[in-house]
User: What shape does this take?
Amino acid sequence: MSTRDRRSDRDRTPVNYTRLTHPLVRDERGGPLRRASWDEALARAADGFRRTRAAHGADAFAMLSCARAINEMNYVAQKFTRVVMGTNNVDSCNRTCHAPSVAGLSAAFGSGGGTSSYEEVEHTDLVVMWGSNARFAHPIFFQHVLKGIRHGARMYAVDPRRTSTAEWAESWLGPNVGTDIPLAHAVGREIIHAGLVNRAFVERATTGFEAYAELVEPWTLSLAEKVTGVPAAAIRDLAHAYATAERAQLCWTLGITEHHNGTDNVRALINLSLLTGHVGRYGSGVQPLRGQNNVQGGGDMGAIPNRLPGFQDILDASSRIKFERAWGTSIPPRYGMTLTDMFEAMEHGGLRAVYCIGENPAQSEADSGQAVRRLAALDHLVVQDIFLTKTAELADVVLPATAAWAETDGTTTNSERRVQRVRAALAPPGEAREDIDILCALAELLGHDWKFADSESVWDELRSLSPDHFGMTYSRLEEHQGLQWPCPDLDELPSSFLHARLWETDPARRGAPAPFGLVQHDPPVDLTDEAYPVRLTTGRRLDSYNTGVQSGSFASPLRRGEYVELCPEDAEAYGVVVGEEVRVASRRGAVVAPVWVDPGLRPGLAFMTMHFPDEVDTNQLTIEANCPIAGTAEFKASAIRIEKLPAASASS
Assistant: This one.
């Protein structure tokens, strides 16, 4: 067992990542990174991209853009990909988390954003938190939920774990991992059989109701109880509460999306909103809670392989021509690779060069050992970041950037589609440069002379091409402390919620109806059995952020490092106590972690986070079983076993 697998208690502190202050280059494969001038680093980065395109074509290149960087950077990054390199291969960690939300919402409503504002949660009558421990993962949003509860809203929590969020709920429903669709179908069936369907809305604003009713008919309360583990009475209670509420908010997070059928999970929840008319009204809507400060904005800016800025489909010729004229280029009339596709293409040599800005896929991807191997095999890897991450350690060129949240001017977009200004408060250290400046310098070396005076000039170019953002000038964003898209007008303020059109009586004003999603139950890919009898689900804790690169060096009284959390019954059955190290093994790898006992878990269910991969690399255990529609991996459902270590080994 490697020393990385086994670390003593006194070593259980996250790695303190040092801030990058100057460019780094690698002279030979396997050699060390060394300090370089900006001119040398940029020339090496550009030469590698040029060679790759010449030898293997434009689609041998891919861009990983950053969900923590400003909108303007993401706009320039996707423009670099499409104009300079000539491919649509651009994506971000949106693929890792909420791509199924975007896909599901787009399929139902034609738009990939949450339908409500945060304020509406304070004035609704019912909040359903499904697969979301928002108190830990989205603490700012949860403050709005608490205000709603204080104003009289009821809350239901649906989660395999009895989380900190569930402590505030009127009722907790704990389904078996991977049974969200049967549970949602049972709720829908009960609403139909109880005569609680909003018939006027369904008939006017939706399609496919009869097929949906037929689909959910087998999912009786008793069958759902057997499959999901949730008592029939609790399912019935949720169905009646949601259907009879005047206003209701249905919110979800990665507990819904990080499955091999994540998009289907999202569609199953949206079906409930269509059944009851809880969408398109103030206080009633569906809300995916985005985890990073600009993961919504990155997609809005076109840093995804199938959409141009403003969610304009690449396959739509009129949209494509508009951008081609503005950019003076031709855009391939086909979708690019998703993040998932990129890693698969690395395996067989179809992808040779990657430009990674602000992402750490070496530690954030499922089956991380495989991800590292694939990244290391690339012909050319350029990483642009503020820290020397594990991904940057694999790079041929490392470019030091500014911290978007403190050293850059621009905008970001949050989960409620609100675009807000970000202002530089600090000067960047050493030779670090702004992301946009670096991108433009590389573009110039590759034959494109882009001159942006500042972030506002980038934003104004985006506004000229995206109708949803046209009315959001910097001055208006400052005046109103942010605006929500769509905001097509320079004078009027946008609505706080989407899809009010669905309530129009005039069919011309109502537009396209919202279809019910006909989705089937599909259990987790990584089945439990005698060899791997425990279901591992992963998530976040309040004290840490993602792979710990940004949060790990800051002290927190809440932080206790990585543990494998077990219920009291399982801890007793395995004969282990809090703090004792055990070996956690899956079909892909194994790690050693200390035990924590959580009474919010049930027998056969374990929990870990991805916050401390240098200490315990949880993603060695997770499976790369991907949603075929959105490409998101099944981080929430791995099969593992717990092995008690011999006393001598455990103490060594």
